[in-house]
Each structure stands twice: as structure tokens, then as C-alpha cells.
Amino acid sequence: MLRGPGRLLRAPVAPAAALAAALLSSLARCSLLESRDPVASALSPYFGTKTRYEDVNPGLLPDPEAPRRDPKLLEGTCTPVQLVAIIRHGTRYPTAKQIRKLRHLHGLLQARGPGREKGGAAAGRDVGAALADRPLWYADWMDGQLVEKGRQDMRQLAQRLASLFPALFRRENFGRLQLITSSKHRCVDSGVAFLQGLWQHYYPGLPTPDVADMECGHPRINDKLMRFFDHCKKFLTEVEGNATALYHVEAFKTGPEMQDILKKVAATLQVPVTHLNADLIQVAFFTCSFDLAIKGIQSPWCDVFDIDDAKVLEYLNDLKQYWKRGYGYTINSRSSCILFEDIFQHLDKAVQQKQRSQPISSPVILQFGHAETLLPLLSLMGLFKDKEPLTAYNYKQQLHRKFRSGHIVPYASNLIFLLYHCENAKTPKEEFQVQMLLNEKVLPFAHSQESVSLYEDLKTHYRDLLQSCCAGDECETPKVNTTSDEL
Predict the structure, then answer these.
(1) Among 366, 376, 385, 364, which Cα is nearest to 475's?
(2) Which residues are catalytic?
(3) For the segment 469-479, what is each residue's pLDDT rounded down to a tens digit?
(4) How far apart are CA 51 and CA 288, in angstroms?
(5) Angle at CA 329, nearest 5°, toward 326 and 330?
(6) Are strands 178-181 and 220-221 parallel, antiparallel or unpaired?
(7) How far apart are CA 225 and CA 424, in angstroms?
(8) Does pLDDT of 482 surpass 50?
């Protein structure tokens, strides 16, 4: 054990230190590309899963490190004894696939003939020329990695949660933190940044040590838990590998709403409409969101679209999330059974330890994953479910839908299960109660619309689901009967 503030350091382990150093090696070159100045955009509410956390929680802008206590949080004789959080990674770069599409679109703009600005719908305001002349700063090496803004998302989230729940995050518990992460670098780096934020909360102004030297250790990779969708045979067969599973997404791309945008963008950029498609339109829209989230600028890509366009493009993104991660197919949510069961196992253990007057072995469990981790879990619990399914044909009827991915799982989104022990409970059943928070706001339970639930009542409501999850056969594909009855 190294001597450090509060004895929260341990002797370094060479392999872990090397891993941590490798994961953070891109910090220097990344930080040069990014800006931290907040910029507002009229399109921000419609960026779907590419939405900034502060656009969902605008109250954070004046002081991003100060906690915002929801008045619905329990207090008084009910004290939190355990926090289980599923956290999406912070702001990231585009993936290599998205960058290739953007490069193709940029090439189309550069290939335009001379003098195009003299005619057409964009006369006097040639957005296409401005974009063609604007260098692309995205590079293949970025490929979905966490950006400095994403690290800041995590550090600030850590400081707010530690201030909001000081008894759970007290320094004495630092070594008992449990951190689980997806193997993706953006998730591992998010966990590292969260720990750095905690250290800064404990020791403001002091240099932050390498995470590998901290007592709690480096986040532990568990893809079966945090990327359950990659390990679910039924999901991989029936949805991921099924060419018709996203029928409504493809149908909407060729529907009237998207075709109107296609023609409008072609006129604005002054390129033949036959050279564009819905995917290129969507990557242009996402580039507006990436420039805003990463560099803090409203780039010329944003000038291509208005709010009506943004609403349609948001719906296209939500359709994909709905049919691939949400309520579109039962297996989407059922694939998250392993994570759902894991959460209740943590809560059960804490209840048992408290009943035996034992210390809670893991007061804080932090699990870092993806939007694709959170959306199936929320759907499994019946949250954000609309009366009618989202389809390619009911865009206007769904303008006020509950299932808006950007409002549910922006960058750094977090779902928290908070277990309370209530000292003055009138009955043993009332002794343990639970609240859920989504993005630091109390989330009503789907079955009751109440902001708090007795723990036993919550388990009773989800009893059949927990039992079927425990059976472990949710992801098994049906066995094919190879016996023939033909004569």
C-alpha cells in the first residue's frame, strides 16, 4: 500500500498500469481537437442517441459539478445503503463507418462543377461550397473513442453523485467500489474518468494518481453483462442477422417524409438527388451533432437542416432503436435478462447483510456500457412504452411519443437503483424501499407511476420476469425438428 491521501492508493501492478497507460495514450492528441465552450443549437433536442447530456439536463450548465437534488428523493429516517448504476459512456467520436460515409459525402460536394452557386435554391448562400471547402477533421483512428468532453462528462457525474450521496461515496468506501465495464475503449475510459472525478472530489487540487494505483483498482471487463446483446443467440439470429428485422427503418427511409428531406438537401447542397440517400443525409445530420458535442461549435453542417427536418431524422433514429433495442421485438428486451437479474442480486445481498447487521460489502456498484445496454433494460421494465408501436407509417401520430432515445439515453446517461433502509418502518416489509433515477432525476415505476416502491413489492411485480431470467433460456434459439413425416 502506497502512502497517499486517505490511504486510497495501493502498490502499482505493472500489467494494470500498462493497460491504463495504453487506454489513455490518445489524450494528448484528442484534447487539441476539442473545445469545452458550451454552444446551444435549435437542433439539439433531436439528435437522438448523439445528444449531449447537458441538453437533457440544462440545469447543469451553470455549475456542472454541483449536484441537483430531486425533491422526490427520500430523506429523513430512510437512508440509502446501496447504489447500483448502469452508465452509458460519455461523449465519443464518430465510428469509422460513420467517418467513411462523411468522407464520401464530402467527396460529392468537392466534385460539384464550377459556378454552381449562381443558380438553384441555394443561390447567394452556397452551403455546399462552404462544406466542400471546409477540411474534414475526423480521422479513422478516432473510431468511436471517448473524447475529452466525454471524460469530463464522467468526472463531473462522479462529483455530483458523490456530493448527492455522501454516505455511500465516503472515502472509507473507496476500496469497496465495484466497477464493471464493457470491453469497448470508450466504456473502459469512462470508468477511469469516473474514478478520477471521485479522487478530485475527495482531494480537490491534488494531482490524480494512475487509476491502476488506486485502492479500488481498474474497472473489470464483463461483456456478457454489459454487452449481453453480443452473447444472445436468439437476438443475433432473429434481429441482428435478420435482413427484414428493420423493415420499418428501411421503409421510412424511402417514405414521403425522408424523400422530401432528400430533395431539399440536394437542392441546398446543389448535388444531384440521385447521388444522395437517407444514410448520407443522416450522417450529415449526425456530423452537426458531433461538431457541437465534441468541439462546441455550430458547424455549417447544421445549416443544411431546419427543425422540421430534425424531427424527421430523430424519428428515423428512434425507429432503429425501437426495432433493434426496444419494444419492436420481445428478444430485444429479454436479452438484458442477465443484467436485470444481476441488479436484483446486488440488492438482495445488501438487504440480507443489513438484516444481519453486517456492513454492506458493495455500497456502490458502477457498470459502464452503451445506449444498447440501457434501452433493452428500460424496455424490459416497461418504461417509455407507447400505446402504439413506432412504424414507418405513423410519424405524425408519434410526434409526442414517449420513446425518444435522445431524452432517455444521451451521452453519459445513467440509470440508478437506490436501496434505502428505513429505521422507523411500521412493518418489516416497509423497512427496505427503492427508488430509480434516470439521468439524476427520480423515475416513476412503470407499474405504479409512484416515485418509490417497497423492495418486496418491486420484486413481487417482477417475480415472473426474474424467474424466467434465472432460467437462463431467454436467448436460446428454438431447436429445429429434423424429423420428416413424409412417406
Answers:
(1) 376
(2) 89
(3) 876 788 988 77
(4) 11
(5) 90
(6) parallel
(7) 36
(8) no
The whole-angstrom separation of Cα 96 and Cα 141 is 8
Confidence at residue 214, expressed as pLDDT on a 0 to 100 scale: 85
Give the count of alpha carbons within 13 A of 127, CB side only: 19
Q: How confident is the model at residue 319 (pLDDT cuts 50, 70, 90)?
A: very high
> How much is the CA Rg of the chain, to the nearest whole Å?
24
Contact 361, 347 (CB under 8 A): no
Instruction: Using alpha carbons, select from 444, 368, 410 the residue that is nearest to residue 158.
Output: 368
Q: How far apart are CA 304 and CA 285, in angstroms?
A: 8
Convert the pLDDT of each residue in 264-299 to its tens digit.
Answer: 999 999 999 999 999 999 999 999 999 999 999 988
* Beta carbons of 42 and 314 less than 8 angstroms apart: no
Q: Report the distance separating Cα 254 and Cα 173, nearest Å.
A: 54
The DSSP result for 254-276, as a single string, is TSHHHHHHHHHHHHHHTS-GGG-
**Which of 2-16, 195-209, 297-311, 326-340 has the least mean pLDDT?**
2-16
- Cell numbers placing 326: 426496444
Neighbours of 6 (CB within 10 A): 12
Question: Residue with C-alpha cell 448523439?
Answer: 50
Q: Report the alpha-carbon distance of residue 235 to residue 477 in Å, rounded.
A: 9
Q: Which amino acid, residue 243? A: A
Please report where in the chains the cell 413481487 appears, as a residue: 460
Distance CA 145, CA 423 (A): 45
DSSP-assigned letter for residue 123: T
Q: Residue 126, SS3? A: coil
Residue whose C-alpha is closest to residue 136's, from 284, 304, 293, 313: 284
- Name 367's bridge partners: 86, 180
Q: Which residue, 231, 314, 264, 34, is CA-closest to 127? A: 264
Give dist(CA 282, CA 317) in Å, integer: 9
Can you tell me which residue has the cell 478530485? 200
| Beta-sheet pairing, 178-181 with 441-443 | unpaired
Q: CB neighbours (10 Å) of residue 211?
A: 24
**Residue bearing cell 412503470:** 446
